Amino acid sequence: AIERTLSIIKPDATKRNLTGKINAKFEEAGLRIVAQKRIQLTMEQAGKFYEVHKERPFYGELCEFMASEPVVVQVLEGEGAIAKNREVMGATNPAEADEGTIRKEYALSVGENSVHGSDAPETAAEEISFFFSGLEIVG
Ligand code: CMP
What we know:
Layout: E1 2-9, H1 11-15, H2 19-28, E2 32-39, H3 43-49, H4 59-66, E3 71-79, H5 81-89, H6 102-106, E4 115-117, H7 121-131
Helix pairs in contact: 3-4
Bound molecules: adenosine-3',5'-cyclic-monophosphate.
Catalytic activity: a 2'-deoxyribonucleoside 5'-diphosphate + ATP = a 2'-deoxyribonucleoside 5'-triphosphate + ADP; a ribonucleoside 5'-diphosphate + ATP = a ribonucleoside 5'-triphosphate + ADP
Function: Major role in the synthesis of nucleoside triphosphates other than ATP. The ATP gamma phosphate is transferred to the NDP beta phosphate via a ping-pong mechanism, using a phosphorylated active-site intermediate.
Subunit structure: Homotetramer.
């Protein structure tokens, strides 16, 4: 089925001017960028977005990192977009990511791992509506 997923190009990647190279990976995989904006998250917004990780030891560090520099938030659309995006991103830890994936090529560490992607249809819907209104998504 055609799906939509929420993607974030993280501060380590925007800082190194990698937005275009990362977008090329998505487009080469057949994912369409149907919404996109560059924003800088506040600590409060980052904390809310990552609320599910609140009890994890890395939560504070994660929120500070996500608020440290601009991010590019986007909606990717395509056949099986949620799983396809996770394939293109590669494993969370770049040391475990497959050749050719975004994280293998660009991520610096498990924290500074260049991209985020929704992990399931329910979280994709929630995460998309966290950042975008229906009018901002043009399929
Ligand atoms: P993401 O897909 O954005 O969702 C949660 C993030 O937490 C994850 O990517 C990682 O960047 C981050 N994360 C996971 N494990 C660790 C860790 N051990 N130390 C720091 N950050 C982590």
